[in-house]
Amino acid sequence: MGKTLTEIAEQLNNSEKKVQLIYAFNGAGKTRLSREFKELIAPKISEIEPSGVKFIYYSAFTEDLFYWDNDLDMDAERKLKIQPNSFTDWVLKDQGQDQNIITTFQRYTNNKLTPRFNEEFSEVIFSLERGDDERSDNLKISKGEESNFIWSIFYTLLELVIDVLNIAEPDKREISEFDHLEYIFIDDPVSSLDENHLIQVAIDLAELIKINKSDVKFIITTHNPLFYNVLHNELNNDKYSYKRKHCVRWLMTKLDDGTYNLDEQPNDSPFSYHLYLKLELEKAIESDYLSKFHFNFLRNILEKTSTFLGYKRWEDLLPRTEDETNPYEARIINLCSHSKHAGEEVPYITEDDKRVLRYLVQELNKMYRFHQAEG
Fold first, then answer.
1. Which residues, including other chains, have CB under 8 Å from residue 154's CB and lie 6 or more apart?
2. Do 256 and 313 share a structural domain?
3. Alpha-carbon gap, residue 173 to 151, rounded angstroms
């Protein structure tokens, strides 16, 4: 017998984990779950209010605050309009975070693509710098770029909130709006993103979660296995300060009778998507369409396979020289890049990097075997 979404929301609320990561297929009820959870935690708060905020969430409803005016008559003044709401008013008008939003957006897209807010922060136009002191204005950006822009606004809000709440004494904080915040619920922020930007969003979000010193809890839902994998791996990497005991991952499924199951997934078991990643990586090698994010694919595969084979470190699976050193480890780690500024780099790689990637995948295919215990 399954559970209702209200019962699933109560199950999440009863968890002591600081981060709950939920994987579910499209149409399984993720967005409806976010609404049920909001009604459970803060039924009278629909958006950011001046005080007493207990719950913040990002979902399809957040994206509905933005819509295009395509200037169908003249086809010259294309604008992204912002519905009047306290969410963007607080971030843009009260906190003056427009430049941080622009910086974040350009990191995810192109440092020549610039959003330009009007004075009332009620609409945005986009321009592209040409590099010759000229620019193209009033561009209609892609759906992926639009999602990146909206996420950049929300992510800027999260940075501000976490920065404020990391000050333990409430009377020493610059603002008090979030003193009672309990949950941040993020529903599928990567539905329109390509793999490269998706990975960067996951890495940045994990880094933000890991620096959170407050009691605020995160619930993150997604239908994207790659985002699920990267975020889970980043939060459970023992090289960083975040501890495994703080994070749980769930698989939510919808049953034929309209009820739901929420099953906990073991933190140390591979997620089968790594086999799909391996196939995609091999297809990219065959077609010679390789980018930096394919190194993230390889790292993901190595992490999952090392768990399956019983190795403690994914680096132990890489080819080694006679003196047991590993000349490829630093290269892969650098190219995977956990830096917040990785998005500023071009996604393309050199022919030498491609050669290394091809070699490592070839070694992956011929060398992997179960780890044999000594003695």
1. 58, 62, 189
2. no
3. 25
Does 52 share its domain with 148?
Answer: yes
Phi, psi (rounded to 5 degrees) for 166: -70, -10
State the residue range of the domain holding 22: 5-65+91-111+142-265
- Spatial distance between the Cα atoms of 10 and 19, rounded to a whole number of angstroms: 15
Per-residue pLDDT of the chain (375 residues; tens, 9 = 90+): 799 999 999 999 999 999 999 988 778 889 899 999 999 998 764 444 445 688 998 987 788 899 998 765 666 678 999 999 888 998 999 999 999 999 999 988 888 899 999 999 999 999 998 766 666 777 888 888 898 899 999 999 999 999 999 999 999 998 888 999 999 999 988 776 776 678 888 889 999 999 999 999 999 999 887 788 788 878 876 555 556 678 888 989 888 889 999 988 766 554 555 666 677 788 788 888 887 778 877 887 787 777 766 677 777 778 776 666 566 665 665 565 444 333 444 456 788 888 888 888 888 777 654 333 343
Identify whether residues 242 and 303 lie together within a single domain.
no
Strands 183-187 and 135-136: unpaired
Nearest to 24 by CA among 143, 187, 155: 187
Query: Taking the complete model, does pTM exceed 0.85, yes or no?
Result: no
Assess whether 103 and 217 both reside in one domain: yes
Residues 6+ apart with CB under 8 A from 269: 307
